[in-house]
Design a protein that fits this description.
Spore Coat Polysaccharide Biosynthesis Protein SpsA, Chain A, alpha/beta, about 300 residues
Length: about 300
Amino acid sequence: MSGRAEGAGSVERADGAGGADPGTLSLSCVVLTMGNRPDELTRAVRSVLDQSGPAVDVLVVGNGADVPPLPEGARSLRLPENEGIPGGRNRGVAHTTGDVVLFLDDDGWFPDRGLAAHVREAFAGDPRLGVLSFRIRDPEGGVGQRRHVPRLRAGDPLRSSPVTTFLGGACAIRRAVFDRVGEMPAPFFYGHEETDLAWRALDAGFSLRYDADAVMCHPPVLPTRHAQFYRFNARNRVWLARRNLPWAVAAVYLLDWVVLMVVRERSGRALRPWFAGFVEGWRQPCGERRPMRWSTAWRMARLGRPPLL
């Protein structure tokens, strides 16, 4: 069990779950699928159903696709259209009732049957904990990817720490976070939706923690496998800044990312769609603007990741 996260502001115990007996916390798990990995999906669902302790409510959301046959005990919800990752997860949250909602990719799985008990203890022990980000482990024994550790100093994935963002396909979120700050931004479709929710949760006084003891196995894949990755990456980053940052901070944040992209990529194949998405992010509406407090930006800086990178 990892230690209590530091640096959080005060949060009302409106969820009625803070400081509770871990056994009284109910868990739900939302699994998104496109229906094209039935064997992997079965493995993912089974890893949740086989957790020790009270049963976890498992909902598989077919994101514009039929849901393959599931192990007994799991439920399914088919969406008529692909609503994207945040949209699909929002629908899953709306159709579950757990005090804490776990999210799991359909090609991942939980190798430890004690994960659910660990999650219950973490949330019951800290009423300010809003999000627990899991460690992603390469099942083939590889070193893993730095982007799977949601902090700047990502060299040691076995070190737990407070963080300012999380991994959407391997996490647990207190329902009170959604009740208080709203759902994930569905128009993002793919990319940075977790950071948007994370920043709003931090601004509401919740804490986020990367927990190296909470493990999800997932085969190594690159985000660039998605055809629209560069476009969505840039568009959503602009939306993220427009929605959440004071304008002075937003300007520095976006300038930093323009420089980083040019230095990192140096390829027209990547930079053309990225800059097209960047322009699109300014031209299209991004939803309600709720800039974070300066105290939240300072708190993020104290946690090692100011909202500039």
